[in-house]
Amino acid sequence: MLLAKPVYQIVMGKTGYIGQIGLILAIAYCGHLAVTGLSVPLPSSVVGLLLLLAGLRLGVVAEAWIGDAAHFLSANMAFFFLPSAVEIIENYDRIHPVLVRLLAVCIISTVVTFLAAYWSVRILQGLVKKGGRE
Description:
This protein is mainly alpha-helical.
């Protein structure tokens, strides 16, 4: 780990969830700055996640620094979809004419995404087995 434990205790020591969520948001904001500053044709949320992954893999960010907040956010993910659901209900009159097409797109894209993930894992498992590692 690149940062010493005392630095972690100073930065994150008594902040708990707030500090951990703040660190996650700071990394996400760095992704936003990278996209806007470099004109990268990717969503800033994806770049932020890639930065977080790189930080975790390189040891710049320790899992313990964000683990509790990440678990909390994952466990309460449905809560973050409530504003979207309310918007859909409020704008039902505008959505109603294209509702069948919208649902078809959602269902088809979900199935395609599921199948792509499934086959990717299967292919990678086959490559690993051929390489002699499991």
